[in-house]
Amino acid sequence: MTADLSQARVERGEVVLVERVGDLIEITARLPHLAATSAPGQFAQLRTGEATVPLLRRPFSLAWSDGELCSFVFAVVGVGTRRLGALHPGDVLDALGPLGSGFSLVSSGPVLCVSGGVGCAPFPLLIKTLAAHGVDDITVLNGGATGARLYPADRFRRGNAAVRVIEATDDGSIGRRGYVTELVTASLSPAPAAVFACGPNIMLAALAPLLAPHEISESAVVEASLEAPMGCGFGTCLGCALPRRTADAEPAWALCCTDGPVMPMRDVDWRALQELPGADVA
Amino acid sequence: MNVADLPVDLGRGLVLPNPVGLASGTAGYGFELRQLIDLDRLGALFTKGTTRLPRAGNAPPRVAETTGGMLNSIGLQNPGVDWVAEHYAPQFTAWRVPVIVNVAGEDADDYVQCVRRLENVAGIAGIELNISCPNIAHGLDFGRDPAAAARLVAAVRAVTQRSVMVKLSPNVTDLAAVARAVQDAGADSVSAVNTYVGLKVHRRTGRPVLPDGTGGLSGPAIQPLALAAVAQVRAAVDIPVVGVGGIVDAASALDFFTVGADAVQVGTATFVDPSTALRVLEGIAARPALRL
Predict the structure, then answer these.
(1) Are A3 and B28 a contacting pair at CB < 8 A?
(2) Closest Cα of chain B to A281: distance in Å?
(3) Which of A21, A210, B94, B281 is the most buried (most CB within 10 A)?
């Protein structure tokens, strides 16, 4: 089925704020069309100008929108994020979006959000939008390698001050020492109406069995926001294939950009995804 | 007369309204880009490589960026020719942009059956034979050997009245010989070039980024290579030559006309800015010094 791109367009807006948040960067730009048309979990393809190095845009979930402003959160991992991180207020940010599928907006809680590292990105806007729909019983499990890689709890609470944030770091510098997935089982009662997850593939793959139908109500919404090396972002290059769970042995691929980035976790072949070579970002 | 307004006669009744098209593999079947740009202003849409049977495509990762370029190993993921004929072509009939189906296969019979299946299907303006996909087994064999390429074109020629363009591979010893061979076998035009075989090493692991090792390199990094190839092909054949490879703007497109191309295809740049081909069309129209 052809993706709905009816809202997507190229928009160039002024950067108004570049914040260092520990080892993460949050950039805010004036992008009124994107702000007005994006749903939580959707993404934009960003670039900083006309240069051909880097050539391709880079995909980022919309982390926050307020009026005409849109924010994105990322870590510097390669040339694309290095260019983005070098922007200053007054520079131009070039965005193509909104793209992809967003989270299913449930009408009642409790809601459990599981975030790993820069997987925090889609949650502030999701939490704000859920609050606007009257859903405010929300728990965020937030994990990161170190305290500096952990998105601060108050930033998850921007759209809803009552959100509970439970933290874990690999090195124990903030919150519990260990993986965020170790916090999940204790957070499944009362049973969540929805679980939304975003983080590294290895985290999502470890999370999937904890949310299997015998662990959580079959009627619960269980969705993850995924990533893949991406060419276009709008369904034409077919570059961002992800393994889809199927009944037969034949490989079947979903496109991260148009079938995702948010997909029901039960539709993803997590074993196959884990076995893929790591994303190339250098 | 301005080159941007010039129709391009590709033979057997196929006339492009203008010389700027979208390259195969970078525009799907048009349904996504149609939502982003005014596709009907373009000279042609060359579809994703289409095969006799559906193909799931290669395991990821399928794309990797290089300096000024993009490597891909998609593996001809497509829904198969029957689906294209039954579900896509009826929609093409309402479009003004000519849709040229890029046909690929693993052996001559695949190509012949594909082209035959499309023969009387409304909505399809022409055929581009992909004898040069680097990402499937045997995909390059026809493109490398002038005699094999000629046999394939002759076999396809025998089953179609449509205009047949042959997309040439640059990964050959003697490009001019292949171009002459397909012309002599009945091709109505040629497009040059497909992607260059390239490899990217993952610098942390020391292994190739793409699972098969190599992929096809496109993007501005290959534009000078593609220009040299088009110049070589232009000198070798009399039929129309369509230039493709690394166009990002009007200037890089005009280079192809300068070396003798009759039309151009915009490829990878569409991923970055979906309106690139339209900007190329407007840009070449706006430059009086370059009027023919």
Answers:
(1) no
(2) 8
(3) B281
| Shortest alpha-carbon distance between residue B55 and chain A (Å) | 10
Q: What is the C-alpha radius of gyration for chain A, rounded to an integer number of angstroms?
A: 18
Cβ <8 Å between A280 and B64: yes
Residuewise pLDDT in 10s, chain A (282 residues): 688 999 999 999 999 999 999 999 999 999 999 999 999 999 999 999 988 999 999 999 999 999 999 999 999 999 999 999 999 999 999 999 999 999 999 999 899 999 999 999 999 999 999 999 999 999 999 999 999 999 999 999 999 999 999 999 999 999 999 999 999 999 999 999 999 999 999 999 999 999 988 788 889 999 999 999 999 999 999 999 999 998 877 778 999 999 999 999 999 999 999 888 765 554
CA atoms within 13 A on the CB side of B46: 33
Contacts of A6 in chain B (CB under 8 A): 35
A252 part of contact set with chain B, CB < 8 Å: yes
Tell me whether strands A43-47 and A92-99 are parallel, antiparallel or unpaired. Answer: antiparallel
Flag if B63 and A253 touch (Cβ within 8 Å). Answer: no
Nearest beta carbon to residue B65 from set A9, A54, A243? A54
Are A241 and B207 inside 8 Å of each other by CB?
A: no
A8 and B CB contact within 8 Å: yes
For tokens 């026809």, the residue is B142
List, as own/partner pairs, every contact residues B207-210 make where C-beta atoms lie below 8 angstroms and the sequence separation is at least 24, other chains included. Answer: B207/A277, B209/A277, B209/A280, B209/B61, B209/B64, B209/B71, B210/B61, B210/B62, B210/B64, B210/B71, B210/B73
Residue of B271, B275, B278, B279 best to disrupt the A interface, most CBs of A under 10 A: B271
Taking alpha carbons only, the member of A199, A195, A209 closest to residue A112 is A195
End-to-end CA separation in angstroms for chain A: 33
Strands (E), chain B: 8-9, 15-16, 20-22, 44-46, 63-66, 69-72, 99-103, 126-130, 164-168, 189-192, 196-199, 214-218, 241-244, 263-266
CA distances from residue A82 to A69, A202, B100 in whole angstroms, order as listed: 22, 24, 40
- Interface contact B27, partner A, CB < 8 A: yes
| B126 and B164 Cβ atoms separated by less than 8 Å | yes
Please give, rounded to a whole number of angstroms, the shortest distance from the CA of A16 to a CA of chain B.
24
Omega before A184 within 30 of 0, i.e. cis = no
Q: Which DSSP category does B31 fall into?
A: T
Quote helix, strand, coil % in chain B, to nearest 5: 35, 20, 45
* This prediction's pTM: 0.95
CA distance A169 to B169: 51
Catalytic residues of B: 133
Q: What does the alpha-carbon distance between residue B14 and residue B126 come to, in Å, rounded to a whole number?
A: 7
Burial (CB count <10 Å: 0-12, 13-18, 19+), residue A50: exposed
Instruction: Check A277 against B57: CB less than 8 A apart.
Output: no
Chain A residues inside the 8 Å CB shell of B71: none
Are the beta carbons of A256 and A227 closer than 8 angstroms? yes
